[in-house]
Amino acid sequence: MARKIVAGNWKMNLNRDEAFALVSEITGMLKDEESRNLKVILFPSFVHLGAVVQLCLGDARIHVGAQNCNDHVAGAYTGEISASMIQSYGANHVLIGHSERRLYFKESGDLLSHKINMALQQSLTPVFCIGESLEERNSSIHFNRIEQQLSTEIFHLSGDDFKKCIIAYEPVWAIGTGLTASPEQAQEMHAFIRAIIRKKYSIEVAEETSILYGGSCNDQNAAQIFSLPDVDGGLIGGASLKSRSFVNIIKSLP
Ligand code: PGA
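Above: inputs. Below: predicted complex with 2-phosphoglycolic acid.
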């Protein structure tokens, strides 16, 4: 059975005090849910990473990750952050291939493959994001696009390494737009992704891989989306910036 997860991607939001307040509110509210075996991942900005790790030490269910990492080990790459730096601060996850990185920073599939390798080398869990554009969906090539992203960007991994990764399906047209994939669209794509993983690796790998949904997920629609058989939780952007809505989303996990 795949692990159920709710992850919050803060993107380029929250200054120091706001970030600290959000974490303490979330950890406080989750105390009421102590009996539940939840997995939550927070993705703050790099500058807050070390502090957020420290603030979350009291709750083993809360993990912390970076929103990006460089594809090199170390060296003359001004302004960049390596996987080993992230790991050295106690963070254990990293987002790779978010559509905003692909679109605004022109990250190619080849680069993303290298980033996945680098993350795994440093024992970080990659949360690998895939998703089709509105044009691709309207032209009915969304399944081809998803299959292509998986096969060219992450299927170079061995089954053992792939099992260490989390997949996030985020239709680009649903991110930050208030448009959510319908339950039918989400389930259909998640089942497709699991089937492709099964074909490439095995039933065991496919069933153990957590496939998260992302794109305008909020505390009004999370319960319905999370109840779908092939959806193992969510990657939440805007709604992860408010403690109440984020904790309500976490509580929506079945
Ligand atoms: P959103 O973002 O929830 O604000 O749509 C999701 C994401 O980009 O990961």
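The beta strands are 5-9, 40-43, 62-66, 93-96, 125-130, 166-169, 211-214, 233-236.
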